[in-house]
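TEACHING EXERCISE
Course module: macromolecular assemblies
Task: Read the component lines below, then compare them to the predicted structure of the full complex.
Student: A.B.
Group: 4
Components provided:
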Amino acid sequence: MICKPLRTLSPKLAYLAAIAACGLIAFAAMPLRHTLDLANIAMLFLFVVFMVAVKLGRGPAVVAALLSVLLFDYVFVPPHLALIPVDPQHVVILAVMLAVALVTARLTAGLQEQAELACSRERQAQRLYQLARDLAGAVSRWEVQGALDAFLGNTGYRAVLHFMDEGGGVPDPVPGEALGHVVQEAIRRGEPVEGEFFGPALCLPLRAPGRTSGVMVVTVSGEGADPRREKNLFAVVASLIAIAIERLHYVEVAQETQVQAESERLRSSLLSALSHDLRTPLTALVGLADSLALAMAKDNPDDPTSETAAAICLQAREMNNLLANLLDMARLQAGKVALRKEWQLFDDVIGSSVRLLKMSQSTHPVRVRLETELPLVEFDAVLMERVIWNLAENAFKYSPEGTPIEIGAYTDKQWACLTVCDRGPGFPPCKAEEVFEMFVRGTPESSKSGVGLGLAICRAIVNAHGGTIHAENRPEGGACVIVRLPLGTPPALEEEEDIAAGGRP
Amino acid sequence: MSAEINILLVEDEPQIRRVVRSVLEGEGCRVFEAETGQRGLIEAGSRKPDLLIVDLGLPDMDGIELVREFRNWSEAPILILSARTEEQQKVAALDCGADDYLTKPFGVAELLARVRALSRRWGRGGEGSPKATFGDVTVDFSLRAVFRGGEPVHLTNIEYRLLSVLVANPGKVMTRRHLMREVWGPAYSDSGHYLRIYMSRLRQKLERDPAEPEHFLTETGVGYRFEP
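Instructor-supplied answer key:
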């Protein structure tokens, strides 16, 4: 169907045109009244009525029909220039003509109206299609608003989009005082709400699956427009826009995730490169200094340089510990340490830690006190070994040489507890919690080496296990750090049937 | 070290190669070097080393891959060099046939201790003795009996099986998976807590001080090691 632009004649002019058309045909047919048959002249009038119905619509067509019959009767039907016909045949002609004219007017005008309705629907569909296409290409909220403006064009409506902020709170740009409550109402109810803003207004929430991203406020800018009449159209527009906004949102999220993954990858490759590049020279340094010390001690046991070499070796190992802590902290802070939690016994990890501690130093005796029948506890053994190592190292550092370090384990209600205690001066008063902060040390200007990472790492690891760590001073002197891990429900253990295996001579 | 042994060192860092070479040559070993994994495989084929020392972080191929390839045709012991945070790789390398690992940075004494232990085991060969002794404990495999200070010790079936697997591999790091498979069978390889509990029971029965074991040692994150 070919759709022509809408009729632009105003109603008054349309009626005048209808009257003029009837007058014109009456005037034109006047000279022919003696040559043409009455029925043919009636046809001419009916043609005019038909054309008026096609071109000017229902009202003018009805007027034209009545006027045509009147003129026909008055001018052409004998007696001329009189309204009442004498011949009964003429009465029939007039009656039939009136009926045909009215029916023609009605049918034709109705058909025309339907055609126009279809046309306007098609135009609307076209515009919606264009809007959808514009929205599909939009890469920012400004472009979405631009597409909406292009869609409304000069239809007499104006629409403004208000977007919610991140927390889903106040829409942006903030709607004026007059509309504020309408907007809130629309968001709350999730459906179009009517309001007033220099004329009728309509507020539609932009709803997409999962969330409401904002509202669209439609107001009027021209005469005769009323958005409340076109609620359905605007609901469709609002849902198109909501989908576009949602798409933009997900594009943003995807980009953010990509950037995050990229920086994460960079960070971890940086960490492993750093770890490798620093450890390699350290390994060489430890090995070289160690073999130098051994060779010198063998050749000349009294040579003080062999002690120097041994000291270099010790310092390099110290540096390695520091490096390990820095890298651990970097990993823990990035939140990228995957806990390999398994059901473990404290005996295992304490036993191996104590062996390491005894190998690495001989200044402090290490004592272990374990409660018998300790239950299985779920933790990452490698990380827990780091905790014990760091706590013990701290104890070595801050307690006088020769005093014992005590490591213990016991259960307390729903907690599995691990303690590392020394007989040193203890934590400075009021600092028992602060020492677990990063780069905080009990005595800032202490001559002891260290940067204050050990305890912070312990706390990060223990917290990642859902446990707690705190420091206290023992009444008999010395510091104590207590680690508490939650006691879960250990997996069942099928006991074997004890058919005696060994032990019988 | 008694007899001269051939050692192949596969390590990409020249400084670390230098240290290891000088330490081992000081002990009378013959040390061959390879910078890359490919080179290492070629050298291993031609030199037939008695001990292979491999860095896990090689530039051209995974150290684990090298271990697997080498294990295909040689029974010689393999010592892994690795960083502290590489537990998973250590376990993978041990599961592929490596015998022990050394964490960087390591001292001369640690390196020598590992190399000595591995070459001793290699030299001793597979002659099975019906009796094994450690501390004050004697295991008599022919009688299926365990004595501590002359007194018989009662062990359950599983405890005895675990003990015999450990005692049969002195000094070797056994991964948890390996032990689980040997003692409980393949179906149990995920229930690591069984192993921990039985290990703890063995320690209770056979260690002088179970809290500070001397023979049944834990290699945290990796497995266990039996030291006679």
